[in-house]
Every structure is written in C-alpha cells, then in structure tokens.
Amino acid sequence: MFSNSSKKQNAKDIDLKGVPSQSISAINWSPTANHLAASSWDGLISIWDAGSSDDIVTKMDFQTPILSCCWNDSGSRIFSGDCDNCVRVWDIESNKTEIIGKHNAPVKCIFYEKQLEGGLLVTGSWDKTIRYWDFRQQEAAAVVELPERLYTMDCSFPVLVAGCASNDIIIYDLNNPTQEYKRIKSPLTRQLRATTLFKERDGVFIGSIDGRCSVKYFQETSSKKTFQFKCHRENKNVYSLNQIAVNPRSGSFVTCGGDGKFFFWCKEKKQKLGNSIKFENSICCSGYNKDGNIFAYAIGYDWHKGRQGYTNSTKDVRICLHELADKEI
Asked: Distance (Å, rounded) from C-alpha 168 to C-alpha 75?
C-alpha cells in the first residue's frame, strides 16, 4: 500500500544515560518543555531534560511495575498507571507521591485532559472500565463499563478512543464522556496493540500483533478512505506493531515494532518517509516532543515470547533521541 552485537545506532541519535534496568513501558514528553519521562517494569519513573543533557535528572521508585505515565498540563506532576491496580501522582517539586485512585486490575493507560471539566485524569484498565478522576474527591468521578479488557487508548479533546481485548474500538465524545459515540470492530483480525488518534481527530491509526496497520476514518469521504498496510515484517517473519505515535507538528506518524525498527509514514500520500536501522531488540514505545522535532524511542524486550524470551541477549534497555530530518516530518 505504501511506496517506498555491539549496540547499533542511527546516525547522530543520542543514547540517554541512567536508563532503568528493565523494559520501558511508556514514554511521555512534558507539554511545556523538552523533559522526557519514562515508566518501566522495575517500578521507576525517570526524567531527562533532553534540551540540555543526556544525563538523568531525577527518578522515583513506585515499587510496583508501571504500565503507563503522563504529565499534567503545567509539567509539574506525573501520573502513573500501575500493576498493583493503583493510580498515583508524583509531585516533582516536593518529590512526594500519593495514591489518587484504584481499579480492580492493573491500569493499562492514563491521560490527563485539561479541557475536561477543568482538568480530569482518565484511566483505562484490564478490569474492563474507563474511569475519570477529579482530584478534589477520592472516588472516581465517573466509571464507564467496557465489553472487555482495555488494551490500548488515546485521548485528545474532544475525542477518546479505546481498544479492547474483544477487538472492539469504542469512540467517546468527551463533551459527554460516559456515553459511547460510536463502536466499530477493528478492521484487523489479530489482537490490538495500538489505537492512536489522527492529529485532526477525525480518525484513528490501529496496530495489531501481526505487523499490520489500519488508517481508519470515522466518517469516510471520496478523499478520506480507510486503508490497511503491512509493516514490521522480514521475509516470512511477522512482528508485532507495538506502538503508533503522531507528530503534533505535521500529523505524520511512526510505527514501532518487535522487529527492532521504526518507520515514519504520511497517511495523505500513503508514503513511507523514512525508517531506522534494525536494532538489537524490539522498539517497545516512543513519542514526539511538543514541537514535533525530536523523537524518543525505547529499545528493549517487549515480552512477546513471555518469560522464557527474557535472556541476556534481550534484557538490555536503551532510550534514544532522534532529531527529525525535514523529510521525516
């Protein structure tokens, strides 16, 4: 559909120092500065100031594996979704953490939405719920039941999209956040790994474990039609598409995979804009900074082969920064 050892390195990419010892579960940039936060399976959230140094600035040990993290709108707090079912907040200035809510199963996805009733936290869990949290009260402000476990979610006002284990993709209008706006079945037949909104919020990128990506418009027109393509494949080997991130500047997108590569794409031109070398391990997660000119990606074991796949050759963890060329934007 689209035209076209020692540590391996993309030319000029920077390896961050002080990375965690276990795989990175999420990467998230501050909305106010080039501060990068990464959550990891060893219970850490680590922060780097990518604008000034490759050294770690600070970290917090939550003492439980962390599946997701996000910043508040001022870049002063970080929220986490954890494997002990808790939702936590870390106030960076005071260096204190507290539990602000709980699910009944691990918290897979977390987003802070400043335009939602003056600022609410949105979490999605394997307990088959989405919950909205108002920091002025201890209980969830609202709970939305899902048909199955939540595997992937994205949120950009006024749209929230949730992907479930049943391959249902549910869209919510955050002006009425507890009511489904639309429900569709994934056009991909295998398990979902990614659902990421377009920059324009009129559609969603969908990724699956069999190295396929769907570009799905919510309302199709003659110039906006849903299509699919294969990626993250080598000969007969098929790898999971682990994450999709969208450039906030241009709307182009990147797919990251279990094959140890990332690819930049343009949905309008149906064209590949560029790609990385093949790294020694999977690309677990990634993200663009607020200006869309720096791309961060995490290399490590993505657990696609379970515990038996965690060996000396797969356990190394890296976080790298890639300064985007014009052709990749």
From this structure: 33
Q: What's the pLDDT at 5? A: 38
Question: pLDDT (tens digit, 9 = 90+) per residue, 240-281?
Answer: 999 999 999 999 999 999 999 999 999 999 999 999 999 999
Q: What is the widest separation between alpha-carbon atoms in the chain? A: 54
Lowest mean pLDDT among 21-35, 167-181, 229-243, 310-324: 310-324
Cα separation, 8 vs 259, whole angstroms: 14
Nearest to 280 by CA among 263, 258, 264, 297: 258
192 pairs with which residues across the strands?
208
pLDDT at 221: 83
User: Residue 238, Cβ neighbours under 10 Å: how many?
Assistant: 17
Contact by Cβ (8 Å): 253, 247:
yes
This prediction's pTM: 0.94
Distance of CA 120 to the CA centre of its chain: 19
Write out pLDDT tens, residues 289-321.
Answer: 999 999 999 999 988 777 777 776 667 899 999
- Omega of the bond leading into 158 within 30 degrees of 0 (cis): yes
pLDDT at 8: 58
DSSP-derived letter for residue 3 is: B
Would you say 288 and 50 are in contact if contact means Cβ atoms under 8 Å apart? no
Instruction: Output the CA angle 17-26-287, nearest 5 degrees.
Output: 80
Task: Show the domains of the chain with their CATH numbers.
Answer: 14-328 (2.130.10.10)
**How far is residue 116's CA from residue 134's CA, in Å, rounded to a whole number?**
10
Provide the Cα torsion 321, 325, 327, 328; round to 10°: 10
Strands 294-300 and 318-323: antiparallel
For 130, other C-beta atoms within 10 Å of its C-beta total 25
